[in-house]
Amino acid sequence: MSNVLNYFSGTNTAFGFKSFYHNIISKNEANKIIYLKGGPGTGKSSLIKNIGKLFCDKGYGVEYHHCSSDVNSLDGVVIKDLGFCIMDATFPHTMDPSYPGVIEEIKNLGEYWNSKMLRSNRDKIKGIVDAISLSYKEAYSHFNLANHFWEKIKDLNSKNRNNLKYNLLLKDIDLKILNNIPYGVAEERQTFVSSITYEGVISYIEEKILNFDNVYVLQGYQGEGKEDIMDYIYKRLLLKDCVMEVYFNPLNPNFIEHIVLPHLKTAFVCESEFIDLNFKGDFLIGDSIQKPAEFSSYQKEFYRANLYEFINLAKLQLKKSSVMHHELEDIYISAMNFKEVDRIYNEIIDDILN
What we know:
The chain is α/β, with parallel strands linked by helices.
């Protein structure tokens, strides 16, 4: 089994960029948190990636926190056994120390660029940065319209719910699953394990539940019960003695996508409208709590077509912004002194190991 776990600590949603970077590591568990500052192309992601690989090769459990705009780029690495975290702390996931010099410190890679060279590209840099900002605004607008139709489908399906069967299902979940977990105070971490990227929807949920004893699968489309059941399970688990990771829907983060209880090897997972996930486990709902539809299939298909159309338009804007971001990186790379970045890397490694 791999000693690497993958996450998205922030992603592009219907409501803009949603960040859970403050949940990457608990300040109570951390021995050292390093916030990297600096512009694009200054080596932040490569530095983070190299540190992760080094400790992964040494056999440590490592968390990779991926950039939602470029899944091959890393925004953070956590080595939990050492209480160590290093992350990109620049916009849109700006982070600053709460306990500067004690637990946290800042490394500013922007100190090692040639400002004169960058100023000579002033107009080009400004043009690219402004174009990227506009592209993201367009992407968020498309995601918001996609969510409008996602909500329309959800509303249609929820009107055809058999409430008696739904309530009996909640009772079964309580009696047969949740009552086996003792009461207490839950410890939770909220984040994303899925993201809608320009390459498609990426999800890391399957690696989280490998060899789990209990996987409970919530089937169906939005509005057929899985969102409300997941919310019910979450609120009940808050009263239990458990550690849980709560993963939110990447389009609409007001809804929970999955809940994983790693210490109990138990998970509650939702089938996704956006990606095929081959879950194996106990299937809690399908059509069992739905009454026959009272609306035309054409109506739902119209909403679904618009949902995917606007998601595809958003993905095109994310791709466009990624291409421009790489152009911006090339300018900064040519102005960087990477020998100093290598020195910072060696300082960090020495600090961790000693």
